[in-house]
Amino acid sequence: MNVDPRALNELLEESQDLQADALRPTRDALHELVDVNRSGADTDDHENLAFHEGHRRGVFTSLAGAPLLAAAGGLTLVGALASSAAAASSQDIQILQTAASIENLAVATYKTALTLPYIGSSSANAVVNKFARVTMNQHAQHADAFNAAARALGGKIQTKPDPAFVPVVNKAVASLSGASAAQGTLGVVGLALELENIAAETYVKDTVMVRSSTNKALFASIMGVEAQHVAVLLAVQALLNAGAPQLISLAPGTAASLPAAAGSVGFPNAFYKTNSAAPATQGAVK
């Protein structure tokens, strides 16, 4: 199969630009995370706590600094608010650790996939091979970013994979034993797609759940990268299912041979669902 190296490099350069944009909030704003942790305050408290913790806590937050706090019982309310801030910080740490565990699992999965001849060898589809290698490195960077944010909030880093999804990956990998190149490639793509979709859906949910505005930016940005991975894999999967692996190519003229659905298959939903999102504490450090 002929691959236009210039087109492939341009595609990967765009992916890396998106990756750099996604990680910039962490590099530029870890000091803000530390300040938020120390002060127990954030400009998003009113909206986020009201949304996630109910009207009662939202009302309490809106009363912070009001004359009511100087009245009888005010110290009790101040204590409740301080506890709420500490709990919110702890929740952010757990969410970040779970996200890191998902990224750790993705790295291990792509690493395993690259040991398979139909993904990692010189005879494998060049686009799929390059995608797997670049994406694995991006997931490693995502894990580092989530762990850096958790550590900045006083939490521990998560170096292990998400325990709930490890059996899913192990079962899928075991099923690839003895598979043909076509079946194996389709199986790997399906597994990668499942993990990428879990990551994207989890981060959509986490963007709303996390308390820190810096963490919100981090999750929203990385979610965009995961969504890009999903789109690419959906297109690749569709071509494999159609028996047209030769169209998984960046060679000149390939676009003219693609079916009309190629322009939309990567974006099946107008809005991301969160049905497969991981619970906030699922991958937290115990």
Descriptors for this entry?
mainly alpha
What does this structure look like?
It is built from nine helices and no strands. It is mostly helical. It is globular and about 50 Å long.
Compact description:
With 286 residues, the protein is an all-alpha fold.
The third-level CATH topology is: Ferritin
Q: Tell me the radius of gyration.
A: 22 Å
Task: Assign the CATH class.
Answer: Mainly Alpha
How do the helices and strands follow one another from N- to C-terminus?
HHHHHHHHH
Break the fold down into its secondary structure elements and pairings.
Blueprint: H1 5-39, H2 45-53, H3 55-62, H4 74-113, H5 117-120, H6 126-152, H7 166-175, H8 181-209, H9 213-241
Helix pairs in contact: 1-6, 1-9, 2-3, 4-6, 4-8, 6-9, 8-9
